[in-house]
Amino acid sequence: MKRDIIIPMQVEDFPQWFKNRYKHTSSFLSGFLLLLVDLLTIMICIGTSFFIINLINRSFINFRSFVTYWIYLPAFFLVFYVSKLYPGMVLAPAEEIRRFTIGSFFCFVGIAFSIIFETDGREMIAVAMIAAIPFASLGLPIARQFSRLIFSRSKIWGVPAAIYVFNNEKNIVVERLLHHPELGYKPAVIINTSSTEPRESQYKGIPEFPPTQEVHDTIKKLNIKVAIIIEKKKDTLLDNQELYTKIMQQYRYIIAIPYNQYIRSVYSSVRDFNGILGFSSTRNLSRPWELFLKRLTDILLLLIAAVPTILVTLVAAIAIKISSPGPVFYGHKRVGKNGKEITVWKFRSMVTNSQEILEKILAEDPVRRAEWEKDRKFKDDPRITKIGKILRNTSLDELPQLWNILTGDMSFVGPRPVTNSELDKYGKAVDFILSVQPGLSGMWQISGRSDTAYEERINLDTYYIQNWSIWLDLWIITKTIWVVLRRKGAY
Questions:
Q1: How many Cβ atoms sit within 10 Å of the Cβ of residue 7?
Q2: Which fold has domain 158-259?
Q3: What digits encode the pLDDT tens for the residues 227-274?
């Protein structure tokens, strides 16, 4: 079979390639598109709150009158702009929810007070404005997420960026940007700073050049404004003062991605040691007030879910009993916070002699044994009952874990609860991950669930603990609903 030969692009050919691929180098269009989406979502949220109040009592409010309140949209734009929600690229989802919630709160409360003080008999209009806050807090980030996915299919979305790398350190960032065009930054050229010879190549279809003067002059003529610097394990660009200075002079926006991702967090702040900059981060889940807030959120969510949970439990219990003999619930020993052994409850989805069947499979089928040793799961598990498949595909088998949340052994969001036999796979990160309560959902569940490999699970759980905030929990809960509805990675 013949392999396609990739002809390296010459520097003089790069401008034409770039112009055919990218129509602009500014983030204005991307920010403007998100602005239109935000303003439309605000009107939908106002209309929703008007509709609900009108549904309660038609005399309270005229539903159709909500369209007249578009005059307040400039106030939302101003607040969102000051909150740095535009152009809205690679903004952490939790931070986006936080900014939208705070911004929406001040806008709607301000509008409500102005209506109360300036007019008579319009108290229900003010109530409708206040009622729109929770819709906007979640509706705006969700609308943006869908919009980014749609806009990313168009050439008008995103900004071309020059990626500075060291050998193969480029792989994960460049591939992630290529795989997720909704992030907004499009790799336009790769500058391999470890390359000393004047040679050209390509990576995933992206031209790769050494950091020569000719290359930088070409980039400047094309008006590429963004540089993304990917640090390697030991050295940084500071080792090459000349190149560092050139990057600082040439680009308007510079993003440095540190090799060590564990020390810094989304909420890192800068500290100035008399001209020497340092980055400060706080592990929020070690603070009593934050732990109380997380527990309070769990209790409130349990109260909201109480009635539907009872109804689903009754239906599931009957179906399990009818479909196969054995108990309704299954308790599995897991490792909880600080290494405490806990019993994690689920609806029974397997036959009662599942352990014997597992031992037989592991003894007789080397392929499946390898799959089990890798992920501790089978993609096509013969032990699962017909009702069990339905429960697992919909994730309803985990509903009894609400009892674990009530007793304080688990939280709605947290690292994946693991078994004792899995601890070795977590290596040196095991104590850090076990320092918090495991969760019913978490970063790994919304990032592929059963399809996520162990190494990625560890990275995701570590990210969650280091970057925890109530806003991150809200984003994970919201995205969990979407993942469950899509049945992504569930088996």
A1: 10
A2: Rossmann fold (3.40.50)
A3: 998 877 655 555 667 788 888 889 999 998 877 776 667 777 888 898
